[in-house]
């Protein structure tokens, strides 16, 4: 299990941009992984999402996974992280 938040996404994804904005506003650090540039990461996202390349896929240190979360869902999770 990772000890940091990992966000899998793409640079063209508007939901990824929104999630990055939430992290920045809350001062939360995370590791960004661009699945368009990393085939292994793309395969991991597909594994997590049962064959779909759904982004953002965000993995938390506690093992929780959020896929395409709304702003409210992400803010709620980060307030407990």
Description:
- The chain has a 4-stranded mixed beta sheet, with helices on one face.
- The longest helix is centred in the N-terminal third of the chain and has 13 residues, at 14-26.
- Strand 1 (6-9), helix 1 (14-26) and strand 2 form a beta-alpha-beta unit.
- The chain is globular and about 30 Å long.
- The protein contains 3 helices and 4 strands; from the N terminus they run E-H-E-H-E-E-H.
- The chain has a single domain (6-80), classed as Glutaredoxin, CATH 3.40.30.10.
- Helix 1 (14-26) runs parallel beside helix 3.
- The protein has 81 residues and is an alpha+beta fold.
List keywords for this structure.
Glutaredoxin; 81 residues; four-stranded mixed sheet; single chain; alpha+beta
CATH homologous superfamily classification: Glutaredoxin
Give the helix/strand class: alpha+beta
CATH class identity: Alpha Beta
End-to-end separation = 15 Å
Radius of gyration: 12 Å
Percent strand:
15-25%
Tell me the total number of β-strands. Answer: 4
Q: How many strands, what sense, and barrel or not for the largest sheet?
A: 4 strands, mixed
Q: Which regions contain 5 or more consecutive residues with pLDDT less than 50? A: none
CATH topology: Glutaredoxin
Q: What string, H for helix and E for strand, traces the elements in order?
A: EHEHEEH
Total helices: the number is 3
Give the overall silhouette. globular
Helix content percent band: 40-55%
- Return the domain count: 1
Task: Summarize it.
With 81 residues, this protein is an alpha+beta fold.
